[in-house]
Amino acid sequence: MSKANEIFPRARIPYGTWGSSYFPAWQTSALAEVNIGQFAGEAMNHILGLRRVPKSELDYLVIGSTIPWHWKFWNAPLVASCLGERVPGYHMEQACATGLQAALLAGNEVQSGYDVVGVLTFDRTSDSPVGVFPERRAHERTRALADVWDNFGFDPATGNAMITTAGLAARKYKIERQEVDELAYVRHKQYFDAKRSGFLDRVLVPLEVLNVQGRPLGRIDDDLGVRELTLSGLRAMNELDTCVTGGTQTHAADGMACLLVATKEKARELSPRPEIDIQFVAKIEVRTNPSLMPEAPAFAVQKLLEKTGLTMADIAVVKNHNPFAVNDAIFGKLLDYDWSCMNKTGSSLVWGHPQGPTLTRIMIEALEEAVDLGGGYVLLFGCAAGDVGIAALLKVS
Asked: Of the candidates 105, 104, 127, 101, which has an alpha carbon nearest to the alpha carbon of residue 30?
């Protein structure tokens, strides 16, 4: 096996110092009624307490979200105050790649000199605010744009909706509807098997939602909106575009996820299992042709493997953000890989897509799975908007 070098030799992810909320679907829970930045900070405080990590250990905070929230101007310093620890930091976003990119940026911050950096990603698609933007060069003086839904439905570079990218890619690669339905069925089975086994209980944290008076609005203790599907039920659904139905695409959701990135020494000190070493190995981003998003993540993985000298046979855990089942079918075709061997503990196709925290939760699940397997390389990848793919490689020893 070829050895891949670390991109952040100083940085590690302390095992077990992470956690994610459940991801309730759009408008199905009390998260639809709160300031998501404030909630995320308070939730991270709770998770760090459960993980027995003093929040005073934090030197810096990287937050990631994609949807405007009240007080977003104050970004990470405000969220850190909600967490209960006044540390500096910043906000970043890169559409669906936000959750992975935030962890990579934290690795870079540790490499630059911080000892412990918190990563906190969150988003609330429910009740997305509507912005009014001046268009002084257009015949309309102002134009209202809903941050989530209008962007999902319209890429200003192409005029196409996100769902169109899945249909175009399915036609380009001659993907069969039967395969996509079978794939979606397997993904749902993987999720519910992981849920019944108790695996997800190690990753997901039930959280109370409070109003501004501190009174309970509700408890988030399930991925609301997810249901078990039958293969016959999937096959009976109407196509919205080629190979895309209501059962073979993800859904908008709300949620948060957090983890820590630290020096090797600090990681050993903070982790409940200091013998586990999690390092960053490599990262790649690519762009494909316009409106062909589902192929971009596969291209990113191809380039990543070429860069590291590894093959898919060297990878212990493969996990991705798959907004459409078409993404995984194309990945299997381009990488000559059995798609049933990936996303073994669930995926965003099933449990939803709050955007900011999606790939953070995927990363946490993948690292837990790698530990169960005794270690190895972990491959994470996904899309970012209309034609960008991101892939990263970590190693669990």
From this structure: 127
Q: What is the C-alpha separation between 198 and 319, in angstroms, rounded?
A: 19
Widest CA span in the chain: 63
CA 287 from chain centre, in angstroms, equals 19
In which domain, by residue range, is 379 found? Answer: 158-183+276-396
Q: How far is CA 327 from CA 232, 299, 331, in A?
A: 21, 11, 6
Residues 91 and 211 in one domain: yes
| 289/10 Cα distance (integer angstroms) | 36
Name the one residue in this structure whose structure tokens are 């000892």.
115
* Six-digit token string for 272: 């409940």
Tell me whether residue 260 is in a domain. Answer: yes
pLDDT higher than threshold 70 for residue 147:
no
Which pLDDT band holds residue 47 (cuts at 50, 70, 90)? very high
Asked whether residue 66 carries a pLDDT value surpassing 60, the answer given is yes
Task: State pTM to two decimals.
Answer: 0.95
Give the E-state strand segments of 232-369 in sequence order.
254-263, 278-287, 315-320
353, 282, 359, 284: which is closest to 319 by C-alpha? 359
- Whether residues 86 and 171 share a domain: the answer is no
pLDDT in tens, 277-299: 999 999 999 999 999 999 999 99
List the one residue out of 135, 97, 173 whose CA is nearest residue 332.
173
Give the pLDDT band (50/70/90) at residue 1: very low
3-class SS of residue 70 = coil
- Contact yes or no for 356/98 (Cβ under 8 A): yes
**Contacting residues for 212 by C-beta, under 8 A, at least 6 apart:** none
pLDDT at residue number 2? 44
Number of domains in the chain: 2
Binned at pLDDT 50, 70 and 90, residue 128 comes out as confident
pLDDT at 307 over 50: yes
Final residue of a structural domain among 270, 295, 310:
270
Q: What are 79's two structure tokens? A: 């969220």
- For the chain, the residue count is 397
